[in-house]
Amino acid sequence: MNNHIATLNARNVTHLEFSPDGSTLVSASTETIHLWDGKTGEHITSFIPGSSRPVTFSPDGSRLASISGASVWLWDTETEAHHNKPQSHPLMVQSFEFSPDGS
Fold first, then answer.
1. Which of 3, 8, 14, 73 lies closest to 37, judged by CA?
2. 40: buried, middle or exposed (CB in 10 Å: 19+, 13-18, 0-12)?
3. What whole-number distance in Å separates Cα of residue 18 and Cα of residue 32?
4. Residue 58's CB: how many other CB atoms inside 10 A?
5. Interval 35-82: pLDDT, tens
């Protein structure tokens, strides 16, 4: 019996994460971030921030944070808009996370 739901058509994936409610899956590659329907595997949208390593959802799933080199980007998951100008740091950013309340 095959329990396979979907195959995501994404290249060079470096990170996968489900939204807190499990409705959305994010995949990050060396060039693009893709959002996928968590139940069907259908592609929802793409963000192109450049090189993206870890990505993570805010606790309520409304925002997505990504790293590109020494910059942290915040995205609105519904409108795809940037919440801010990329926040640059003097060194390469290796990891990050949202505060428990998402602020």
1. 8
2. exposed
3. 17
4. 22
5. 889 888 888 888 776 556 678 899 999 888 887 767 777 888 887 776
- CATH of the domain spanning 13-88, picked from 2.40.10.480, 3.40.640.10, 3.40.50.2000, 1.50.10.10: 2.40.10.480
State the Cα–Cα distance between residues 69 and 88, nearest whole angstrom: 9
Prediction pTM value: 0.75
